[in-house]
Sequence to fold (155 residues):
Amino acid sequence: MSNTNAAGGGGRRCLHNIVYLFVIGALSVLLFQMGALAILNAIGQTQGVPFPYTPTKPLGIPQIWSFCFWGGVWAQAFGCVEKYFPRGLLYYLCAFLFGIVGPVMVLWFVVFPLRGQPVAAGLDPGRMLTQLIIHGCYGLGVGVLLQAWRRGAPA
Fold:
């Protein structure tokens, strides 16, 4: 993603990239994160089901759409830091680690306490491992989809 600024019409291009990043983040949730959750569920690692439609509080929005929204938001943060990632295969490792570090730490130490749940998944190793894997796959998915979009984007 190129850096843009408000001068010289950069604001419109920035909006264009913000939209693409948001869509890429939402798609990564649907394809990579939920795909990883489906695999983990199938092998018995977790009882969590992919594509959950349980209503969220307080608005009653299905969980999957909430996950997609937050995936789009986290993709914005990814877009800000990925310029520091090395190129080649290490890029994808950094993308995976981004998913582990950012979203998981916020989930464990901000979201869970706000919901009245124990921090860090209650230190349950199975839940912690599941969350690390699915969020790492989310970050990897954002990296893969962003690179694929760049290769196919017109110059």
Observations:
- Residues 101 and 136 are 8 Å apart (CA to CA).
- Residues 1-13 have pLDDT under 50 and may be disordered.
- The chain is about 70% helix and 0% strand.
- The two ends are 12 Å apart (CA to CA).
